[in-house]
C-alpha cells in the first residue's frame, strides 16, 4: 500500500462533517410524520403550496410498504415530503442548514418557493444551506422531492421500461428491493459562520504509545486548539494549529470486541491573540492500526479472522428505514451468535450503525453502492443474449463518474471510524469483461489517494473465475461470493466441497493474498424439515454451512467467513424469490433458523 507521506490529490467537492450538539452548535430533529404525495401530472410545482391529500409518511422510513396502495409499492419516479419548520430564534447570526442523512436515490430541497439543494446518491448525506432563506424566530415550509429512478448511469444501475399496459416499471440488476424515500434522519442544524468544516484523523501504535494525527479544514479564520481526552474526560495530550500530532503514552487501543474511544476536542478561537471561543467540535477516536501482511489481515499487528455476515438495512414495514431498536437488536443477535464483523452490503449504512460499531468494537467492511454492474448475471438467469456491461449503453464514463463520487462520499463520511478497517469498492462486477479494468482501475487509485491507511477489496462473482478475472491484482484482499451446493451442484454437497476447496487453493496459489468468503448460503424456508437434508430445508442449510467451514479450515489464505445473509430480506426478483430472499440465518423478523445455532457453536463453542 502507498505511504501516507506521498503527496496526493485529496480535494473533495463536498465536505460534510456530521452535525453534533456542542457549546457552539445545535441540532433539532425533524424526524416524525411529514405530509406526503406521489408525483403526478396534476401536481405541478408542489413546493409552492401545501401538498394535497391526507397522506402522511414517517421519517425515517421507506414509503413502499407503509401504504396499502399498489401504486406506491411499485412507484416509479418522484414523491414529495413536506412540513413546516420553526427556526429557533436563538439561532441569529448562525449558519442554518438542513442535513438529510439520505434520500434514495436522488433528493432536492425547497424552502418556500426556492430550490436550495439537490443530491444524487441514495445512501450518503447532503446538506441544504438555509442561512439566506430563513429568519430565526419564524416558520418556513420545507418540501423535499425524492426520486427513486435508476438508470445505466446511476449507482446502482437500472433501467426504466414501459410495460404492455403502458405503465412505467423500474428494472434493476441487484437482488434486493428498490426501497425509496427518506430512510434516514433529517435534522435542522446550526453552526457558527466561522467554524471547523472538516477533521481527518489517523492513528498509529508505536510500542505502548499511541499517536493521533489530525488535519483540520476551516470555514473562515481562527486559532485552532486540540485536546485529546480519555474515556474519563481527562486530557491526555494537546496540540495547536490546523495540523497536529498528539502522542499518547500507554495508550489504550481500540480492539475488536473491546472498543476504547478517546475524544478529540477542537476549539476554534477568534484569532491568534483572542480567547473568544468561536466554535467547538468533538470527534471519537479509536487508536488502532490495520494492514495486510502476506496472507494475513492484521489489526494492531495481530492476525484477525472475520466472523460475521453480509447484511442489509431491511426490516418489515420500514424497509430500509433506520430504526435504533432494530439496530441494537441486530447487534445483540450478532453478539449472541459469536460474530465480530460485517460488510455493509451493498451500500453505505446509516451513520448511526457506524457509531454503534465504533463504541462496541465491531469490525466493519464499508462498501459502496456499486452492485449490479454485471449484465452477465441477468442473461444467465433469463437465458437472453449477453450484453456488454462496460459499454456506452450501460456502464459508461458517466457511470464511472457517479461511482467515483460515491467512493469519495463514502470515504469522506466514514474515514474517521475506527470500526471501518477496509473498503469494498464493488460487489460482483463482471470482472472477466475486458472493459472492467479501465473502468475500475482509476477508481481503485482514487480510493487509495483518499485513504492510504486502509486495505481495499471487492466481491468476485462465481463465473468470473480465477482464469477469467482481471481485477484481483488491484486489491489487497480478495473477496469471493460462492454458492457451490446451491446455484451449482444443487443438493450435492460432496461435489460442492471438492470444487470449493480446489478453487480456493488455486486462488491462494496464484495471488498469495488473504481471502474472505463474502457470500455463501442457501435459501431456507423456516420450519421446512427433512431427514434427507434436501434443498430449502433447515437441515440442508446446516449441512451446507458445515461443509464450507471444513473447507475454510483447510485453506491458510482464508481469513474470514461472512455468511449470506444475516436475515431474510425483501427482493423484487419474481419467481426466483418467494417472499424475498430466504438465505438468512435469521428470519426477516429475526427468529433464528437451525443454522444460527450451528454458527453459534462454531464461533463461541456454546
Automatic annotation (TrEMBL):
Molecular-function GO terms, alphabetical: beta-glucuronidase activity; carbohydrate binding
Entry protein name: Beta-glucuronidase
Sequence similarity: Belongs to the glycosyl hydrolase 2 family.
InterPro entries reported in the protein's UniProt record: Beta-gal/glucu_dom_sf, Galactose-bd-like_sf, GH, Glyco_hydro_2, Glyco_hydro_2_AS, Glyco_hydro_2_cat, Glyco_hydro_2_CS, Glyco_hydro_2_N
Domain Glycosyl hydrolases family 2 sugar binding: 27-192
Lineage of origin: Eukaryota, Fungi, Dikarya, Basidiomycota, Agaricomycotina
Annotated GO biological process: carbohydrate metabolic process; glucuronoside catabolic process
Keywords: Glycosidase, Hydrolase
Organism listed in the record: Dioszegia hungarica
Amino acid at each position: 500500500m502507498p505511504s501516507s507521506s506521498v503527496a496526493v490529490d485529496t480535494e473533495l467537492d463536498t465536505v460534510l462533517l456530521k452535525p453534533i450538539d456542542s457549546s457552539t452548535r445545535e441540532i433539532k430533529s425533524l424526524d416524525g410524520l411529514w405530509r406526503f404525495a406521489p408525483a403526478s401530472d396534476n401536481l405541478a410545482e408542489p413546493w409552492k403550496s401545501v401538498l394535497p391529500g391526507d397522506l402522511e409518511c414517517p421519517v425515517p422510513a421507506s414509503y413502499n410498504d407503509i401504504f396499502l396502495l399498489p401504486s406506491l409499492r411499485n412507484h416509479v419516479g418522484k414523491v414529495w415530503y413536506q412540513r413546516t419548520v420553526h427556526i429557533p430564534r436563538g439561532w441569529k447570526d448562525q449558519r442554518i442548514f438542513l442535513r438529510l442523512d439520505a434520500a434514495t436515490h436522488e433528493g432536492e430541497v425547497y424552502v418556500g418557493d426556492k430550490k436550495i439543494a439537490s443530491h444524487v446518491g441514495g445512501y450518503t448525506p447532503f446538506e441544504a444551506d438555509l442561512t439566506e432563506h430563513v429568519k430565526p424566530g419564524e416558520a418556513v415550509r420545507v418540501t423535499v422531492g425524492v426520486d427513486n429512478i435508476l438508470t445505466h448511469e446511476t449507482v446502482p444501475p437500472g433501467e426504466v421500461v414501459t410495460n404492455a399496459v403502458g405503465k412505467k416499471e423500474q428494472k434493476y440488476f441487484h437482488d434486493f428491493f428498490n426501497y425509496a424515500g427518506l430512510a434516514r434522519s433529517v435534522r435542522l442544524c446550526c453552526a457558527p459562520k466561522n467554524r471547523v468544516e472538516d477533521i481527518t484523523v489517523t492513528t498509529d501504535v508505536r510500542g505502548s504509545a499511541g499517536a493521533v494525527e489530525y488535519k483540520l479544514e476551516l470555514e473562515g479564520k481562527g486559532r485552532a486548539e486540540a485536546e485529546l481526552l480519555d474515556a474519563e474526560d481527562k486530557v491526555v495530550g494537546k496540540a495547536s494549529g490546523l495540523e497536529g500530532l498528539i502522542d499518547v503514552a500507554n495508550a489504550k487501543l481500540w480492539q475488536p470486541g473491546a472498543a476504547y474511544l478517546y475524544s478529540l476536542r477542537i476549539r476554534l478561537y477568534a484569532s491568534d491573540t483572542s480567547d473568544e471561543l468561536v466554535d467547538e467540535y468533538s470527534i471519537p477516536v479509536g487508536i488502532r492500526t490495520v494492514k495486510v501482511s502476506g496472507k494475513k489481515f492484521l489489526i494492531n499487528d495481530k492476525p484477525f479472522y472475520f466472523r460475521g455476515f453480509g447484511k442489509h438495512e431491511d426490516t418489515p414495514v420500514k424497509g430500509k428505514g433506520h430504526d435504533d431498536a432494530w439496530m441494537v437488536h441486530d447487534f445483540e443477535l450478532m453478539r449472541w451468535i459469536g460474530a465480530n464483523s460485517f460488510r455493509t452490503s451493498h451500500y453505505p449504512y446509516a451513520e448511526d450503525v457506524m457509531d454503534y460499531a465504533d463504541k462496541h468494537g465491531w469490525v466493519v467492511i464499508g462498501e459502496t453502492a456499486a452492485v449490479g454492474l454485471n449484465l452477465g448475471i441477468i442473461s444467465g438467469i433469463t437465458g437472453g443474449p449477453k450484453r456488454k456491461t462496460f459499454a456506452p449503453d450501460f456502464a459508461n464514463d458517466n457511470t464511472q463518474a457517479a461511482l467515483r463520487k460515491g467512493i469519495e462520499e463514502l470515504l469522506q463520511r466514514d474515514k474517521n471510524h475506527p470500526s471501518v478497517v477496509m473498503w469494498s469498492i464493488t460487489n460482483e462486477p463482471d470482472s472477466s469483461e475486458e472493459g472492467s479494468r479501465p473502468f475500475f482501475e482509476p477508481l481503485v487509485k482514487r480510493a487509495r489517494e483518499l485513504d492510504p491507511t486502509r486495505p481495499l477489496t471487492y466481491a468476485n462473482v462465481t463465473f468470473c473465475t480465477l482464469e477469467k478475472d482481471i481485477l484481483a491484482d488491484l486489491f489487497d484482499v480478495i473477496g469471493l461470493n460462492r454458492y457451490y451446493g446451491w446455484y451449482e451442484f444443487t443438493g450435492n454437497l460432496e461435489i460442492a466441497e471438492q470444487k470449493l476447496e480446489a478453487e480456493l487453493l488455486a486462488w491462494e496459489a496464484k495471488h498469495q493474498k488473504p481471502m474472505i468468503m463474502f457470500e455463501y448460503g442457501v435459501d431456507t424456508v423456516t420450519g421446512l424439515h427433512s431427514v434427507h437434508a434436501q434443498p430449502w430445508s433447515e437441515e440442508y442449510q446446516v449441512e451446507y454451512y458445515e461443509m464450507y467451514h471444513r473447507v475454510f479450515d483447510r485453506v491458510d489464505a482464508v481469513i474470514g467467513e461472512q455468511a449470506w445473509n444475516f436475515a431474510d430480506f425483501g427482493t423484487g426478483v419474481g419467481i426466483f424469490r418467494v417472499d424475498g430472499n430466504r438465505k438468512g440465518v435469521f428470519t426477516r423478523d429475526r427468529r433464528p433458523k437451525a443454522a444460527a445455532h450451528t454458527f453459534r457453536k462454531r464461533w463461541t463453542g456454546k
